[in-house]
Each structure stands twice: as structure tokens, then as C-alpha cells.
Write a structure and sequence with these properties.
Number of strands: 5
Structural class: alpha+beta
Radius of gyration: 16 Å
Shape: elongated
Oligomer: single chain
Largest sheet: 5 strands, antiparallel
Strand order of the largest sheet: 1-3-4-5-2
Length: about 130
């Protein structure tokens, strides 16, 4: 976090994981599918918190890979609720890496917007409750 407040006004990362050798692609960088799965996990955290229960991913509305992720990078994912519908929620996720010990860098590598739907125990859509004040 460049300013100590986080990227979204004081919000800490919802997920922080190391990029490991088992997650590389044929080119030697971290596989994009692994990053996508981390984005989905990170996005689900505020969706579950806001809806008060189970959610499912229904769409990846936007996903951009800006820079490669390297083995040894610490991947930090920040997620923010962007909007709430009757049963759905839009979540924005930004992905950064902490790279290097001698001359550390903090680099944005990806961003995404996802849609989650709140579901009941049978998997049917349920209404997202009003936000408590």
C-alpha cells in the first residue's frame, strides 16, 4: 500500500497468497487461470459478507491481465462492492504483487469486475438483504 491507507480508502487486501512454482505456465510465468481463481475467491469474500450467506459467480464482466506474475511474488487482491441489485452484487477486484526484497516493488498486475448472485441452500437465487446501518 503506497499511502498506508490501501487502494480503496483503508481497506486491506481480502486475500494475500504467494505465487509458487507449481502455478507456472509453459512460459515460466504464473498461469492466468490461477490468477483468475484467486480473483474469484477474493471477489466472493465481500459478496458473502454483504449478502449474509452463500453466493455463486454468474459472470466475469471484465478481466484484464496487465503484467505477468512471477514465482515468489506475493499476490495481494483487493475487493470492493460496486453495486447491489435484488439478488446480485457487482464486485471490483484489483490485483497487485509485492516483488523483490532488495528493491521492493508494488505493481498492479490485473483487475476484474465480477457478478455474484446470493443463493439459498438449494441454489435458488435469494434476495440480498438491506444493508444494516
Amino acid at each position: 500500500m503506497r499511502d498506508g491507507k490501501g487502494l480503496f480508502g483503508g481497506i486491506e487486501p481480502v486475500l494475500r497468497v504467494p505465487a509458487r512454482p507449481g502455478d507456472i505456465n509453459a512460459g515460466g510465468d504464473i498461469f492466468g487461470g490461477w490468477i483468475m481463481s484467486q480473483i474469484d475467491i477474493a471477489g466472493s469474500i465481500p459478496a458473502v459478507a454483504r449478502s449474509g450467506g452463500r453466493v455463486v459467480t454468474v459472470a466475469v464482466d471484465h478481466l484484464v491481465f496487465m503484467k505477468p506474475v512471477k514465482v515468489g511474488d506475493i499476490v495481494s487482491l483487493y475487493a470492493k462492492l460496486l453495486g447491489v441489485g435484488r439478488t446480485s452484487m457487482k464486485i471490483g477486484v484489483e490485483v497487485y504483487v509485492h516483488r523483490g526484497l532488495q528493491d521492493p516493488e508494488f505493481i498492479q498486475v490485473s483487475e476484474a469486475t465480477l457478478t455474484y448472485v446470493a443463493v439459498d441452500g438449494e441454489g435458488a437465487p435469494r434476495v440480498v438483504p438491506p444493508q444494516a446501518d
